[in-house]
Amino acid sequence: MSREISGGEKISVIDLAAHLWSKKWFLVKVIIAFCLSGLFIGFTSKAEYTTYSKLMPESQDGFSPELGGLGGLAGLAGINLKNQGGGSLTPEIYPEIVKSTPFIDDLINSPIYFENIDSVISSYEYFKELDKPSILGMIADYTFGLPGKINILFQSAKEDEMSKTNQLIRFSKDDWKIYEKYAERLSVTVDPETGNITISSKMPDAMAAAMTVEMLVTKLTTQIIQYKTEKSQLNLKFIKNSFEEAKIEYETKQRELALFSDRNKNITSSTASIEFERLQNQVNISFEVYKGLATQLEQAKIKVKEETPAFTILEPTKVPVEKSNMRKLYVIIISIIAGIAIGAIYVIFKAPFLSLIKEITNK
Description:
Layout: E1 2-6, E2 9-12, H1 13-22, H2 24-44, E3 49-57, H3 70-76, H4 94-99, H5 101-108, E4 111-114, E5 119-122, H6 123-130, H7 135-141, H8 146-153, E6 162-165, E7 168-171, H9 173-184, E8 186-190, E9 197-203, H10 206-228, H11 230-263, H12 270-307, E10 311-315, H13 328-362
Antiparallel strand pairs: 1-2, 3-9, 3-10, 4-5, 6-7, 8-9
């Protein structure tokens, strides 16, 4: 078997192997150089830990199974529980919620336990004050990132480190970088077939990674429930306030009627009879309003329960044991393969390439 190299000249695989063997010490040097580079990367890279939790949201189609016999009882009471849906928040929007600035701001400033420093601080404080870049990161910062650092030095001193006024959020450039990198550590994915939600985080501390996932699950589900039940909660609050007012009004009318009746027990005048009938009608009217609002109040309570989504934990959060970034053994293996490949390519194509350059320069 032979292959054409250049200018119609052919070389056999055996010749190619012999040529590579003749350059074996060069190849060994290349492999050693790549292995050392791989070891350098492996030992200087910061440890990262990844963990996750998996949730199964309750289907909101139709009647919520938690209501049990409430539906039948409500029907007997004349309460209509026709499902009108809890909003247009679909699972596809969940990742967008997690990546939103207010959500990240709340999450990154919540205190969690970092086992490697044995302290409870916020992720913002950790990444701003305690987290140090790796050697490679420092080299990158002070080479490729040097223009950016110089630019920061000449920024206006009037820029606030962080301010929030009139619903506007403003961060310094350093804080924006921290927030953006922190957001990249969070992940929320929704299975389009099952609807199951996988929530994961990557942190430089195993315990912090697990606590971040737990906090993320809690805050996300709370926000989803709040959004889904927002309208029904507002309706419940309005009806509850109206019910309390109607109750006070009904009890006031009852007392007025009772006082009038006590004061006019032995009086049979037409004026007293008319006044008694008027007060009685007011009591009846206020009772009907009170009774109607009581029914609406129970309906509103059941509506809130109906529209409150439930989440079942399929896979609980676990504190990771192994680092999620590449193991040193894998780095060494990849370095050896890369060294062999690049060294062989250099040895094979060096002579034809130099010959081609020589031909071009001689023309």
